[in-house]
Design a protein that fits this description.
globular, single chain, 44 helices
Length: 1109
């Protein structure tokens, strides 16, 4: 361990013996080293690790802390230190150095008997949590479908017609809100009761008043800037007079709204917005100021217009109370079902650890023991604490010395429950007179060169303020203290200028940006000053597809260190298609994907030959299995069939996890991706599938079939990702990563890209549920019309402000990762409307990082040559950023030199193959059609009826199988049902023998419902028909789309055809499937030349048929 020479402010922190300390540590200031030195100094003074609790944000950080403490203690001992250091080294392995979750888990196992828990409780992983929550949600929803309460049906009909997806999402959102803070359930219950009160006593009105007054106060500052700007150009003074009158009216209205509340809001704005007139000497500036004024005028009008009348308020309040009450009931039942499932599996999740530990701290015996063991509490990355963790610290800290370290400017994990306000509250508490603690700064950065630090100071002193950002950056506790010295390092603002738009056959802007960066990296590496591992490329999201393609073609080693691996990535998609073919080779899409892959070795001509030979077959798979024409295509088919037979047998003989690993290692897929230069990245992503399979197997016994069905269900949710394996930090590769993932890391050279893309803003429409301590908004329906919740506009402002503040902190994290150079890439318009006043209102209205940076940088007086309104001094002498103007057209020309034959993706090959099988060859333009399933197209275009017939799900209600899997199981039974008088039980035994179902699935099949179908008039007619086909797959072109579908059953009635579709829905939805069956009709008529005279749905649950007209 290198000898540590602390600065004065670092030494002050190490030596301070105040009871409680909060260290406000800016990026790169050595906070972890200071914490270690403070701990060692305390040990030197006679304290012991056995009396310390040291909390880190990640387990990796805990391991690093333990390692560095051991090195420090070893150094002290070898330098002739006390025997004490040797003793403390021996205590390190048992010392409480971990995440707070880890500490809680340790204590829960220690005191499990006091909580009535098993000592072998395991901690669930993410995928296991997802499985159990799906099961808990299924059970919750099925119970209420069975009971059919009016309020539940109303929520379903209004907000989740056709399926329960949105309602499930709302229940999960309500559960997340309850999970965040144990006080939230009480708050929700109080808000629901409050909706019975009249308007003047409403907490809702409090929120609206608070929101309006806050907004009007911001307008006052905007008017102040507008008046100052107008004074310099208004020759008559009339415009300034109007603006001044409107500003006074704003001040007056704020007081009236606070005092008279809804009366003042309904009365409206005190003065009329007059038409601006009078001569000005700068029409552009006048126009810009007029646009700002109009926006304020429109927003005020919207506030007044959207405020409900007394009658609407009463209607809205009652509906909101009923909706929230039902959602709260569903959420509580979901939580209970989830709790029982965890208990049955002897498992707990991360949130349980903290809650169980809080329960332990309520027991005086435990609390006393732990307080005796915990004299010192160290909390690293305190800015990322959540409310429950803060509760734990408060309960443990009665007599302990507290030491918090963090940087509120780097609080970027709100999506994990982190609340920067916790840090801010303690900061305020410790900076008061007679406080129970002190705040000490760490402001000298040891990572980045001076010019980078100066740029960060200059940007954030303007951007991060109390009004916009939630804290004042220009303060000793937050601003970098830059020592005197050489102005080293650089910030490069790179702008790519295009004179022509790239055509479809040329590189995209994103590819050219990647090419520009690749050229710079190659040049710097060739100079010998840098290695590939010195570069980090960061952006807001995790989409680096174009960068990976460019770097691969240019021979630059890279690693995309994304937390999420999308199911739609090429290698992941291919892996799943091969597995689907092994599980069911009669599915057209996976079969074609497999045949076109390295396994099948076929091309479009092979597929065309197969389809032409089997023109009479209604599906490609039928044509494939009957293909017997001699030649190369047949040879490929035979080899593929041998491969398929081997792996089908392997799937039967092995457990799911053993099969997946065997398939990965022996099927050739790993070697294939290494052969095309995508080896390591593809291998890591495919291993994530294997780990997902292992987790699934621990929770479910349905094997490969169940795993694939579960995967399909997950892909339809927002959780469509797997977790990739990490790469060694020592690997000499360029790293692509999100800004979030870059926190805590550093690179000699950083490239920030995607800065022109707008921030992710939630769609705050009337159909959105918003839950916050500041208020609750939920849509309501009256007379089939959706009404906007009056709280929505207030909560929208709160939410958007919080999101912008986190984006600001994320930009701070990204800009402070670079040691020597930072490249900030831009595109589009380099000169936005700089005539607007540079205040918090303007900055809050901007939509991306590029606009933030440009609005500040180009207002520096040095840029007066390109911006006439540059009137401020932001940068110290010789510290301004460098500008690099790149000729995008020349870059595109250079890219052609490097660009090999275009890389045709698997998806495009599949698409072309489908067109080859279903229609004559078309022009290139026609070959870019979008492929959709019949269900997607039908549900996009149908007008869904809200007339539901509910029936309690008396079968399968207590089983683990989800609704989608039940439906698939029913379809499998009906697919193989002989309909020749064979008893149903005998058919099921045959399916079991052929391993088409397993024992558990057999038990789930309601034999009586199958028998009812066979005994029905429809069943008898099908049995008597001389020609019938089942599970017929097709693909057709319709209205610019390639539509993929599968007909359950078709039979002849005379010379014509009848379509039958089996539905296992728990409610009969009139009109919901009309579009789907009409598409089936169109496809069958086109393929067979026969007329479809009837379209029938057989409702399995109801044992009824309905006819589609």
């Amino acid at each position: 361990m290198k000898q540590f020479k602390p600065t004065r402010e670092q030494q002050n922190i190490i030596d301070s013996r105040q009871q409680n300390i909060l260290v406000s540590a800016s990026a790169g200031t050595g906070k972890t080293r200071v914490m270690i030195e403070r701990i060692i100094k305390l040990l030197e003074d006679g304290e012991s690790l056995s009396k310390m609790l040291i909390v880190t944000f990640t387990e990796k950080a805990a391991m690093e802390m333990r390692k560095r403490l051991e090195e420090g203690l070893k150094d002290r001992y070898e330098l002739g230190g006390k025997e004490k250091f040797l003793e403390e080294r021996l205590r390190l392995q048992s010392a409480n150095i971990s995440t707070l979750h880890g500490y809680c888990t340790k204590m829960i196992h220690r005191y499990a008997y006091m909580l009535g828990l098993s000592q072998d409780m395991k901690v669930l992983e993410d995928m296991e949590i997802l499985f159990l929550k799906e099961e808990a949600m299924d059970k919750t929803m099925e119970k209420h479908f069975q009971e059919s309460e009016e309020d539940f049906i109303r929520l379903m009909e209004y907000f989740s017609p056709g399926n329960d997806t949105k309602l499930r999402a709302w229940v999960e959102q309500m559960d997340d809100f309850l999970e965040l803070d144990e006080a939230n359930e009480k708050y929700l219950s109080e808000r629901i009761r409050e909706l019975l009160l009249p308007l003047p006593n409403s907490c809702t009105l409090d929120g609206i008043v608070k929101s309006l007054c806050s907004t009007l106060t911001a307008y006052i500052w905007v008017y102040k800037d507008m008046i100052e700007s107008m004074q310099s150009i208004d020759e008559s003074g009339k415009r300034v007079e109007i603006l001044s009158a409107e500003r006074e009216a704003l001040l007056q209205w704020i007081e009236e709204v606070k005092r008279e509340r809804e009366i003042a809001i309904r009365r409206g704005f005190p003065v009329e917005f007059k038409r601006m007139s009078g001569k000005v000497n700068d029409s552009e500036l006048a126009k810009s100021l007029g646009e700002v004024r109009k926006k304020i005028k429109d927003e005020i009008k919207a506030y007044i217009d959207n405020f409900p009348s007394d009658e609407n308020w009463k209607l809205w309040r009652e509906q909101k109370r009923r909706h929230l009450s039902m959602l709260l009931t569903l959420a509580k039942e979901f939580r209970e079902n989830y709790r029982v499932l965890k208990e049955n599996n002897k498992a707990m999740d991360f949130n349980d650890m903290e809650k169980y530990f809080l329960s332990l701290l309520e027991k005086e015996e435990v609390k006393k023991e732990l307080k005796e063991e915990t004299k010192w509490i160290f909390f690293d990355e305190y800015q990322d604490a959540n409310p429950v963790q803060e509760q734990i610290v408060e309960k443990l800290s009665d007599e302990a010395h507290l030491f918090f370290v963090g940087d509120v400017k780097q609080s970027i994990y709100a999506f994990r429950g982190s609340r920067p306000q916790i840090f801010k509250n303690r900061f305020k508490r410790y900076t008061k007179e007679e406080a129970d603690g002190i705040v000490l700064p760490l402001s000298q950065n040891f990572r980045s060169k001076n010019r980078i630090l100066s740029f960060v100071n200059s940007i954030f002193s303007v951007l991060m303020t109390e009004e916009f950002g939630g804290l004042k950056y220009d303060h000793a506790y937050h601003r970098f203290n830059i020592p005197e010295g050489e102005n080293e390092g650089a910030v490069h603002l790179v702008y790519q200028q295009f004179h022509t738009e790239p055509s479809e056959d040329k590189a995209t802007r994103k590819e050219l940006e990647a090419f520009s960066i690749a050229l710079k990296i190659k040049k710097m590496v060739e100079s010998g000053e840098y290695t590939y591992g010195d570069f980090g490329i960061l952006q807001r999201n995790s989409s680096f597809k174009e960068y990976e393609s460019v770097f691969r073609k240019m021979g630059i080693p890279y690693y995309s260190e994304n937390e999420k691996v999308g199911y739609d990535r090429g290698e992941v998609d291919l892996f799943f298609n091969l597995l689907r073919t092994v599980e069911n080779p009669k599915m057209d899409l996976p079969l074609i994907a497999s045949l076109l892959s390295f396994v099948g070795g076929m091309d479009e001509e092979d597929l065309w030959r197969i389809r032409t030979a089997g023109a009479q077959e209604l599906s490609f798979s039928s044509a494939f299995w009957k293909y017997e024409e001699e030649g190369e295509t047949l040879r490929k088919k035979e080899l593929f069939c041998a491969w398929l037979s081997f792996w089908q047998k392997a799937s039967e003989e092995n457990s799911l996890s053993d099969f997946l690993w065997k398939f990965f290692e022996e099927s050739g897929i790993r070697e294939y991706f290494y052969s095309i230069g995508q080896g390591k990245g593809a291998e890591n992503r495919l291993k994530s599938i294997l780990h997902a399979g292992e987790k699934f197997e621990r929770m479910d016994t349905t094997g490969l079939f169940g795993f694939l069905k579960n995967t399909d269900r997950i892909r339809q949710t927002e959780k469509d990702h797997l977790t990739a394996e990490a790469l060694s930090e020592k690997a000499d590769v360029v790293r692509f990563m999100t800004m979030h993932k870059s926190k805590g890391l550093e690179f000699p050279v950083v490239f920030l890209v995607g800065n022109h893309r707008n921030f992710l803003e939630t769609d705050y429409n009337v159909d959105r549920l918003l839950l916050k301590k500041d208020g609750i908004a939920i849509p309501v329906i009256h007379e089939d019309k959706r009404m906007q919740d009056p709280e929505l506009s207030y909560l929208k402002n709160v939410w958007m402000t919080e999101n912008k503040e986190e984006e600001m902190r994320l930009l701070y994290v990204a800009l402070t990762r670079g040691e020597k150079e930072v490249y900030f890439y831009m595109e589009g318009s380099i000169l936005p409307t700089f005539q607007r006043p540079l205040n918090s209102y303007t900055l809050n209205s901007l939509k991306n990082y590029q606009d933030w940076i440009l609005h500040i940088v180009l207002r520096d007086s040095r840029f007066r040559t390109i911006n006439p309104y540059a009137d401020s001094v932001f940068f110290e002498e010789n510290m301004e950023p460098d500008w690099i103007l790149e000729d995008g057209d020349r870059l595109a020309a250079l890219w052609k030199v490097y660009e090999p034959t275009p890389d045709v993706s698997l998806e495009k090959s599949l698409l072309d193959a489908y067109q080859a099988l279903t229609m004559p060859k078309k022009s290139g333009k026609d070959r870019s059609l979008m492929k959709r399933t019949v269900t997607e197209v039908a549900h996009e275009k149908d007008t869904v009826s809200t007339e539901f017939t509910f029936l309690p799900p008396t079968f399968l209600a207590e089983q683990k199988m989800d609704a989608a899997s039940k439906g698939t199981l029913f379809h499998r039974v009906f697919e193989y049902l002989p309909m020749d008088g064979t008893p149903v039980e005998e058919t099921l035994d045959h399916l079991l023998q052929e391993k088409l179902i397993d024992e558990e699935e057999k038990k789930l099949i309601p034999v009586e419902r199958v028998e009812k179908f066979l005994a029905s008039d429809l069943g008898k007619e099908i049995a008597a028909s001389p020609w019938k086909k089942r599970e017929l797959s097709f693909t057709m072109q319709d209205e610019g789309l390639l539509i993929d579908g599968q007909v359950d059953l078709v039979f002849e009635r005379g010379e014509d055809l009848v379509i039958v579709d089996f539905k296992s829905d728990r409610r009969m939805r009139k009109g919901f499937y009309d579009r789907q069956l009409n598409l089936y009709t169109k496809a069958l008529s086109k393929a067979t030349g026969k007329k479809v005279i009837d379209k029938i749905i057989w409702w399995i649950v109801f044992a009824k048929e309905s006819h589609i007209r």
